[in-house]
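Internal tracking record. Fields below are filled automatically when a chain is submitted to the structure queue. Please do not edit lines marked as system-generated. If the sequence contains nonstandard residues, flag them in the REMARKS field before resubmitting.
Queue: standard
Priority: normal
Entity type: single polypeptide chain
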Amino acid sequence: MQAARIIERILIAIPIILGIGVVIFLIMRLTPGDPVDIMMGQAGHVSEREVELLREQWHLDEPLIVQLGHFLGDLLRGDLGMSFTKGRPVWALIMQALPATIELAMVSAFFALAISIPIGVISAVKQDSLIDRISMAGAFFGICMPIFWLGIILIIIFSINLDLLPTYGRIGSDVNLQRITGFYILDSLLTGNWEALKSSIRHLILPSITLGFPMAAIVARVMRSSMLEILRNDYVVMARAKGLNEFSVIVKHAMRNAMIPTVTVIGLEVGMLLGGNMIVETVFSWPGLGRLVVSSIFVRDYPLVQGVVMIYAFTFVFANLVVDILYTYINPKISM
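SYSTEM-GENERATED OUTPUT FOLLOWS
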């Protein structure tokens, strides 16, 4: 039954993703600036014939509805097209940049969850204490703070003033690493390259804190609110009345149910980590999807922007599907 529901959710997601594709297609075409003019301006003197050939090659000389038909037809076949500026398949460019984005998102999520869930639980148990007030003030600061500002401040403090951590890239320029999977930490472990492992971790610290801190703030506040509600329920009071120690009451009885709304937020935030990291990757010159799509927008590389946005859309849909599946695991009474 659950498998049928999962398949149903996937089928429902297909028109949503196609709709997102239509929207980004129209937005890119309506954005001022012509990709051919931009490229020819960078190339210097070119003839009108060369401009016409480029427009014909990229189907830019055809009506908008015909261009949309080409795009949707290719999309249904899993073909994201060729990059205007790089002359390579969009899929190849995405797969080249994707490991960097996934690695950054995974470390950021680990950092965020490692601090937010304990803080949320402790703040609820110690409601209105000094720890609670300081934690929630920090969470409020994390929610309100512009993410680019946090990244710049961390660079100024830890890179420029203290000279402790690097400011850009994934690994030191003087470090050689054999690429196997594209995930530098994993590749360092597989090859036993401890110098590369150290350099990869040092390069990850600042961008992962910058990207993960807002997520930590949101999850901590949601976890605290959920725990406060659960701790007032009768079954928690009954567990305490039976003489169970406080740790068992909180972990076995309260946290499991408090995680249900928290998982929703975590799923959405993980989608944001994978799909909304353009600012962080730009600030730290991180060679992932975010930086790739930003540079592509400036030169109006339609296929590349559309391809990356479709990956973002799929990420959000997949994250929501995983959240729904986790619901049924955390609380079997909930069905998809």
